[in-house]
Amino acid sequence: MSAVRDRVVVQTGPLEAGALLAGFCAGRADVGAVVSVCGRVRDRSDGIGVQTLSIEAYRGYTEPVIAELVAETVARFAVLDVQVAHRYGPMTPGETIVFVAVAAVHRREAFQACDYLMDQLKTRAPFWKREDGPQGHRWIEARDRDHADAARWTQTKDRP
Question: What is the DSSP letter of 152?
Answer without folding.
Answer: G
